[in-house]
Amino acid sequence: MATTLDSKPKATPGLWARFLDSDIFYSFRRSPLTIAAAVVTVVCFTGALLAPWIAPHNPLDLSSVDLMDAYTPPVWMAEGDARFILGTDDQGRDLLSAIMYGARISLLVGFCSVIFAMALGITLGLVAGYTGGALDSLIMRIADVQLTFPAILIALLIDGIVRAAFPRDLHDQLALYVLIFAIGLSYWVQYARTVRGSTLVEKNREYVQAARVIGVRPVRILFSHILPNVIGPVLVIATINLALAIITEATLSFLGVGMPPTQPSLGTLIRVGNDFLFSGEWWITLFPGAALVIMVLAVNLLGDWLRDALNPKLR
Amino acid sequence: MIAFVIRRLLQSVLVMLVVAFVAFSLFTYVGDPISIMLGQDYTEADRARIAAELGLDRPFFVQFARFVENAVQGEFGLSYRLARPVDELIAERLPATLELSLVAAIFALVVGVPMGVYTGLNRESWLSRVFMTVSLIGVSLPTFLIGILLIFVFAVHLGWLPSFGRGDVVRVGWWSTGLLTVSGLKAVILPAITLGLFQMTLIMRLVRSEMLEVLRTDYIKFARARGLTNRAIHFGHALKNTLVPVITITGLQLGSIIAFSIITETVFQWPGMGLLFIQSVSFADIPVMAAYLCLIAFFFVVINLIVDLLYYVVDPRLRADRGIAGGHTG
Amino acid sequence: MARPPANHPLLEVRDLRVEFPTRRGTLVAVDGISFHIDPGEVLGVVGESGAGKSLTGAAVIGLLEPPGRIAGGEIRFDGRRIDNLPYEQMRRLRGREIGAVFQDPLTSLNPLYTIGRQLTETILTHLDVTPAEARTRAIRLLQDVGIPGAERRFDHYPHQFSGGMRQRVVIALALCANPRLVIADEPTTALDVSIQAQIITLLKRLCREHGTAVMLVTHDMGVIAETADRVAVMYAGRIAEIGPVRDVIKTPKHPYTIGLMGSIPKIDRRDARLTQIDGAMPRLNAIPPGCAFHPRCPRAFDRCRVERPDPIHVDRSRVACWLYDRDDVRMRAVGDE
User: Fold this and answer.
1) Dihedral of CA B67/B68/B73/B79: which sign?
2) Which end of chain B is more exposed for a tag (fewer CB within 10 A), N or C?
3) Residue stretches of chain C with pLDDT short of 70
4) Quick one: how far is CA B63 from the chain centroid?
5) Is B181 left (phi over 0), alpha (psi -120 to 50) or beta?
6) What residues pair up with C184 in beta bridges, in sequence order?
7) Of B175-184, B226-235, B236-245, highest mean pLDDT
8) C-beta of residue C31 within 8 angstroms of C-beta of residue C237
9) Average pLDDT in the A114-138 region?
10) Distances in Å between the alpha carbon of B170 and those of B175, B185, B265, B274?
11) Can you tell me the distance from the alpha carbon of B289 to that of B277, in angstroms, rounded to the nearest whole number?
C-alpha cells in the first residue's frame, strides 16, 4: 500500500536501521518458515564452503580411505560406527564428508551458472530492449524457440556436443566448466525478458531522451537507471534459478553426463549410490538425496518469500 | 482464421528449419563421421570416396538441403553406436515414450488443475496450505530422486509395483502398447507419477496464481456487483479466463514432458527414446542425437500449433481479424 | 414506476466508518459519515481522490476489498440493516435491489462472453423468467440504453464495442433487474469528454423513468451540478458539507466547498478569477486532529485545531464547520434532518 510505504520516518537513519524497519524485513520476521529456510540455507552453505576444514574426513584423499570400512550403516543402526555418522559408501568413504564435499561442487556449479545466465540475460535483454528492430526480434525469437525446450535438454545437448568435440579424458577435466556453461546457457531467457521489458519502458522516459540530446551516452544511463529498477525481479529469478541450477546439475550428474566420480557432486553420489538401493544399502543414495532436497527446498522457500515480499500485490 | 493458421504454420516451419540447421551443424562440424565409419586405418582415396558417397564434398547449402530432404522422410542415417538405421531405432522406442508421457500428462492435468482452482479460491484454508507446501516440496525434488524414492518405497520395500521396464507389451500394427496388459499398466504407474509430479505442481501453481489474478479484475468485481452466485463467478467467469494462459503453459509443459522423460526413463530403465538419447549422448552418437532433436522439436511445434488453435477457440478477441502474431509464447 | 411512499429513506447511512488495518496502525478511510438517499433521488458524492467516496459506495454494496472493513456505524436499505448481512443474502440484494456502474467500461465486462450472455445471466440470476424472456428483456434493455441494432449486437463480444457503447452495456447490466438504487462510481471518468455528457444524460433519463435512486460518485463538480438533487462533499474520509445541489453550488458554506467552487471556471462571471486551495489533502495516516481541513483553511481558528466539528444545520444544508456553531442554531445532527 502506497501510503504505508511513504510513511517512513523523515530523518534518514542508518542503512541497517532502515533495513530493520523495511517491509521486506517485516515480512521476513513474520514468517517462521522463511526464517527456518534462511537458517538451513546458511548452515548448508557454510557446511559446504568450509568442507575441507570442518568435514570429519577427506573423501578425495584415497590414502585415508579403508575398503574395510565399506558399507558401514549410519551410526544409529546396529552395525554403525561412531567415526561415520551417516555411514560409508561402497569404497569406505565417510558419507557425511562426501556430502559436504559434494554440496560444495553442487553449489559452485549452481552459483557460477546463475551468474553466467544472469550476465548473459541482462546484457542481451538490455541490448534487445534498447536497440529494438531486427536485433531485438532476433534475440527474442531465439529466446522464444529456446523457451520451448526444457533447460535440461539444452544442457544435455551442449554437453553431448562438447563430449563429441573433445577427447574423453579432457572432457572429465573440463566437466565443471562445461556444466556451468551448459546450465547457464539454458537459463538466460527469463532475465533477458524481464530486463528487456523494463528497458522498453525506461527508454522512452524523458530523462533518457534528454540525456541523448545533451550527448550523454544513453547506454550508461540505461545501466544506472534500469538495473536498479529490475534488481528486485532479477533477484527473485536468480534465487529460484539457483535452486533450478542445483537440480539441473544433480540431474545431469545423475544421468552420467555431469561431474565424473573423481570429483563427485551430490548428483554423482546419488547416481553411484543408486546401484546399492536394491541390496539394502539405502543410505548411500538417500542421504545425499536428502541433503540435495533440503538445500533446494530452503533456497526455494527463500525465493518464494522474496517474490511475495517484493510484490505485495500477490500476497 | 485461415490466415492465422497459415501464419502459424509458416512460423512452425521456420522453427523446424532452425532446429534442423542446429542438428545438421552437429552432423557436419562435431566429430568426424568418416573416421568413425572407417575406423583408424584408411587411405586418402577411401576418405574421398566415402566423402563423395555421403555427399560431404558438396557445397554447404546443398548438403543442408539434402539433410532436410532426408529428415522429412525420417532418414537420419546409421547410428554410430548400434550401426542400425536411426529411424528404425526411434520407431521402436517411440511408443514407449509417448505412452508414458500421455499417462503422465493426464495425471498432471487431472490432479493439478482442480488443486490449483481449490487453492486459488480458498487461499486461507489449511488444505490449501498443505497443497502449497506439498507443491513446493514437489518443485524442490529433482525428478530422478522422486523416482528413486518411489522405487525404494513401492518396489523395494512394499514390493507392490515393478521397479523397471514396461511389463508385457502387445503389438497393435507396428505400435507396441503396454496399456492393454495388467503388468504393463502396473509398470507405468511409478514412472508416470515420477514424470508427471513436477508438471502437476507447476500446473497447480499456475492455475492458482492465474485464478488469484483474475479474481482481482474489474469484471469479476462487476460480476459480484451484479449479484451473480459465487458458483457462476468462480467457475463461469474466473475459470474460463484463467484457461487462456493455462492452456498455453500447459501445452508447453506437455511438450517438455516428452523431453523430461529422458530422466524418468533412465531411472526406471524404460525402453523409450529418452533412454536411447542419453545413451547416445554419452557415446557421442551424433545421428541419434540429431534425429531426437528434430523429433522433439517436431512434437513441440505440433503441440504449439494445437495450443494456438485452442487459444483461438477460447478467446473471442483473437477471432476478430487483427494483429495477433506472436506475443503470447511465455 | 410508482412505489408506495415510505416513511423512511431508501438508503440510510449512519456513522459509517471504514478501516484498513496495516502493520503501521489502522488507517481510517471513511470516518463516521452519515447521509441518506430518498427513493428516486440522485445524490452526488464529490471529493478529491482518496477522500473516501468510492469506498463509501463499495461499503454500501458490501464489496469492500479486504483488508478494508466496516468498523462502525450502520447501513439501512429500505429500513433493513444491510451492513451485517451474510454473504448470500447480500448477494441477492446486489444487482436486484442495488445496481452498480464502475469507472472503467473497458475492464468491467468479461472479455470472453458475449454481452448478451452477460445480460441474460444477470437477469436469470435475479428474476424468475425463462431464458427466452430474459433474451427479450435484454434486447429491450440494449435498445433502451441506445445501442443501435441491439438484436444483432446481442451476440457480440465486449471488444467489438467502443468505450462509450460499453459503458451503455454496463448501465444496461446495472439496471437489468430494475434495482431501486444504483451506485455509479465515476461512470464517465474513463470516457472521452464528448461521450461523458451522453452517458450522464442516459443515466439520468433511465433512472428517472424507472424511479431509480442514484448515488453518483465523482470528482467532477460539473457532472454533479447537471445531475444531482443533493450533493455531499467529502474531505479526508468525512462529509464536509451536504445539501441541495443548488445551495451547495450557489452558496457553499464550508471553506473547503467554497475553495472547491472557486476553482471551477464559470462562464457567466467574466471578472471571476479562479482560486485554488493551498496544499493537498492529508494522507490517511496523517489526518490532523480537530477539523481535517484546518491546516489549509483560510478561516481556521483555535477550536478547529483541537475539536472535530459535527455536522451543523445551516439553512437546508449540514456543514461540519465551527464557523457555523452559534448556540441559537446549534443542533447536534446525526442523521436526522
Assistant:
1) positive
2) N
3) 1-6, 263-275, 326-337
4) 29
5) beta
6) C101, C216
7) B226-235
8) yes
9) 87
10) 8, 12, 20, 21
11) 6
DSSP string for A244-303: HHHHHHHHHHHTTSSS-TTS--HHHHHHHHHTTTTTT-THHHHHHHHHHHHHHHHHHHHH
Q: Give the SS3 label for residue B205.
A: helix
Note whether C91 contacts B: Cβ–Cβ < 8 A.
Answer: yes
Confidence (pLDDT) at A174: 78
* B 120-139: CB under 8 A from A: 136-137, 139
* B232 near A CB under 8 A: no
With residue C213 as reference, give the H or E element that holds it. strand C213-218
Give residue-wise pLDDT tens across range C244-259: 999 888 888 888 888 8
C123 and C177 in contact (C-beta within 8 Å)? yes
Q: Apex CA C45: angle with CA C41 and CA C51, to 5°?
A: 160
Q: Which chain C residues are Cβ-neighbours of A1 within 8 angstroms?
A: 20, 22
* Confidence bin at A70 (pLDDT 50/70/90): low
User: Which residues are CB-neighbours of A83 under 8 A, at least 6 positions away?
Assistant: A56, A69, A94
pLDDT in tens, B212-222: 888 888 889 88
Please name the residues in contact with C85: beta carbons below 8 A apart, sequence gap of 6 or more.
C62, C93
C-alpha cell at B125: 484454508
Q: Name every chain A residue with its beta carbon within 8 A of the beta carbon of C24.
A: 4, 7
Task: List Cβ neighbours of A309 (8 Å cut-off, separation of 6 or more).
Answer: A23, A24, A27, A28
Rama region for C335: left / alpha / beta (φ>0; ψ in -120 to 50; rest): left
Side chain identity at residue B118, one-letter code: Y
Burial environment of residue C86 by CB neighbours within 10 A (0 to 12, 13 to 18, 19 or more)? exposed
Per-residue pLDDT band for A19 (boundaries 50, 70, 90) equals low
Beta bridge pairs of residue C35: C13
- Length of chain A as a residue count: 315
Which residues from chain C sit within 8 angstroms of residue A24, using beta carbons? none
Phi, psi dihedral angles at C12 (to 5 degrees): -135, 120
Q: Is B206 helix (H, G, I), strand (E, B) or coil?
A: helix
Beta bridge partners of C43: C215, C230
d(CA A118, CA A125): 10
Determine how β-strand C230-235 pairs with β-strand C238-244. antiparallel
Nine-digit cell string for B126: 489449511
Cα A172 to Cα A162, A261, B37, distances in angstroms: 11, 10, 25
Give the integer Cα–Cα distance in Å for A27 and A111: 26
* Position B158 confidence tier, pLDDT thresholds 50, 70, 90: confident
* Chain C: residues touching A (Cβ < 8 Å): 20, 22-24, 27, 283-286
- Chain C residue with minimal CA distance to A23? C23
Task: Specify the pLDDT at position B189.
Answer: 87
Q: Nearest to residue B16, comparing CAs of B231, B222, B304, B210?
A: B304
β-sheet with C181-185: strand ranges across? C98-101, C181-185, C213-218, C42-46, C230-235, C238-244, C317-319, C312-314
DSSP letter at B153 equals I
| Residue A143 neighbours by CB under 8 Å, 6+ apart | A189, A192, A193
Cross-strand pairs, C72: C17
Beta strands at C181-185 and C213-218: parallel, antiparallel or unpaired: parallel
Q: What is the pLDDT of residues B13-55, one digit of tens each?
A: 887 888 888 777 776 666 566 666 666 666 777 777 777 766 6
Nearest residue in B to A194, CA atom: B330
